[in-house]
Amino acid sequence: MTTYTREQITTALNRAADEIAEAVGINEGPILDAMNLAVNVGMSYLEGTADTVADAIEENYDVLSDDIEEGRTLVDHVLGWLE
Question: What is the pTM of this model?
Answer without folding.
Answer: 0.85
